């Protein structure tokens, strides 16, 4: 309805003011109580929130009351906003460098946090002094150049809906209006930085302290809804979850007070029953007044747990008169984002000089004084006074901080900078070639033209204030500045001060000094935690619980072979190939280099066995050579015996090739030398067996086998069998030879240096061929074991081949089941065991006769055995 009246007034034709018009019904009969005027050539308007009005609710279901019932109360702390504007104007008028030959005045009105009163106050700014004649051009029309206001987003929007028609610049020093944007052409200049900076700062603060389980409280209005839609998705993207998201109801009429109290009690229960120790509170300062009772020691008596409150820049610690004795320690430790501010030189002195008797034209100070000091000024008519009498000499410094602060608050700092921004823009405009008549211009048409030019200079204004802080706007009329992170320090006697502990600069860089933070007493100065689940320690990873937020999870150990070296890791990581996890699976340890060496017990033992068996073989060979003319040596082909002993000696020595660090030459020689030498040995055994069979068959009358008995046959068997193995090894070395390699996977704690066989197929072909020769020898010897011949070796060869085959059959599963250097040890053991089996089974009986029973080593014994 108010907007409709305003639009109708705007359609009236322009005309000069007359006495008749002044007395018209549209004129306001009495000026509002809360106003502050100071004359000047240029006027800066102010719409402040000093008092609040709660009107009775109008229901259209019944006839309304004849008069609208309204209840008002003053917020004493907001009086500093008024003094900040007056202080800035005073400094400008005393500065000859800004607007020389011109004076700046101001007209300040109270919005009462009420839309109807806000529209009325705005129209008063656009009207002649003491005359409520909107849209009329009068002789004493004030030269309004800019308006400072307000701290509430909705009030700023109401003011802009009128000022926008006249292109009057408006500086908002509090919450940013949301329902308009730059396309609509609203002439907003925001004395607060971009909200995205604040949201980035809150997220960075949460992540810095690893608070991932938080509660969120917002105002139940458009700005609160915008916060939920903009900030909460950003929080979620960064890994922050919400224990609860609640809206704090706003008070629009006194009939809603009961509902507000009930909702507040419910919210209090939600906050206290939650596991979240951190609550982000987005809202304006007036919300504290309604939320305060539940955290002030009134109800309940004390907090059951500590809360880290994270307040946005819109929030200040304020109190009303009836809250004078309430505890404020609950707000100790609050982390608040605030617009950067500093104490200005001379501001405290200016405030100390404020006095109801000396503040000319200040219509705010008397009620502020009465509310702040709990006293009453005597009426002019000399009526009775109830309560203490105000002397006007009370000390402002004695007031509790929630009532009034001598240090400049962030809002007051914004007002101060806004006044200076307007003055600098006017100064630039007056000194430019686009100078317009700012004082002589009488009509609204001239003012509109003047304001259009002023916006151009406001967009480009840039200066350093008296404290050295830079003030400038971006292309969208938003202040180019960052946010301070402030820690609220509240004591039991209601002393209150702010400690700057961090900052978010214009490039979204967040810094914090956590050593300077004073936490709420409940936390005993230890860093608070706010988690849905206890952190997963290193060595564990998170496992999300189904149906719950991703911040609620179980902690499970890392699987084998993986580690987690940080807390709350989503997954475990593999170590590098040269590293392995420790027992706790929280760190990677470099693996030891492993290969079979002569310096370790296993290598020493195997080397000793190889050398010992080689020595025994050499002794056997020497014994046979010393008794080479004896019948037992001559029997079964003496040359084959020597060849077998020499090949066995080389077999024992070839085992030494497997000990030591694998190198290229060693890897090439290991398997091939072993394969060829062993093939020679087994071939000799096969030749011996065939010799026994042929010798028995040749003794039969008329046998044609005699021509096969001799050195030519045995030599052919040994040579052909060995050459086949040599050919296989040659092919192996030619196409896929063994090479030095590193095995990082077989063993958890060791990097194994080994010889890669190259072609596994060829490796098993070499072993398979030796096995083939051994099986043939075993079969032949087994069949010839009972032939009637003196010194028949067939039975001994049978036992030796049985041992040989048993060793190598057991070799394969054992070799495949072991890892690292133990695979090499298994192969060495198989070489030594099989070779020693041949040596002991074939030559031990002969050595026994040669050395211990020489009487049996003669021809008569041989003939007797034949008979």
In short:
With 867 residues, the chain is an alpha/beta fold.
Verbal overview:
With 867 residues, the protein is an alpha/beta fold. It folds into four domains: 2-192 and 409-460, Rossmann fold, CATH 3.40.50.2300; 195-312 and 317-345 and 481-523, 3-Layer(aba) Sandwich (Rossmann fold), CATH 3.40.50.2300; 540-590, no CATH class; 601-866, Rhodopsin 7-helix transmembrane proteins (Rhopdopsin 7-helix transmembrane proteins), CATH 1.20.1070.10. Helices cover 41% and strands 15% of the residues. It has 22 helices and 27 strands. Strand 19 and strand 20 (553-557) form a beta hairpin. The protein starts with a helix and ends with a helix. Mean pLDDT is 80; it is low at 1-31, 179-183, 295-302 and 433-448.
